[in-house]
Design goal:
- The chain is mainly α.
- The protein has one domain: Cytochrome Bc1 Complex, Chain D, domain 2 (Orthogonal Bundle).
- It contains five helices and no strands.
- Helix 2 crosses helix 5.
- The radius of gyration is 17 Å and the shape is globular.
- It starts with a helix and ends in a 6-residue tail after the last helix.
Length: 85
């Protein structure tokens, strides 16, 4: 029984975590100028993140409208006001 459980745990450990397209988008577009640590402390509302991303697009960040919405959802979900500690 223990050997079977150990094999199952080891098999699960080898499965990579699912990729998060929004996090990958942040890493590809935003992290060239902004560290994740800097973003984590912001705790902005969706409107505040929208204004920030619009400013970054004005400064040359390249995002489609769909990517912008995906990024906004990611930022609010992970770094919105309700995530403040």
């Amino acid at each position: 029984m223990k050997a079977g459980l150990l094999c199952a745990v080891l098999a699960m450990a080898q499965v990579p975590a699912p990729k998060d397209p929004a996090k990958e988008l942040f890493e590809g577009v935003c992290s060239g100028c902004h560290t994740l640590e800097r973003v984590k402390i912001q705790h902005r509302s969706k409107q505040e993140w929208r204004e920030s991303t619009a400013a970054m697009i004005d400064q040359g960040a390249v995002l489609t409208p769909e990517e912008t919405n995906m990024l906004l959802d990611y930022l609010v979900k992970n770094f919105g006001p309700e995530n403040e500690q």
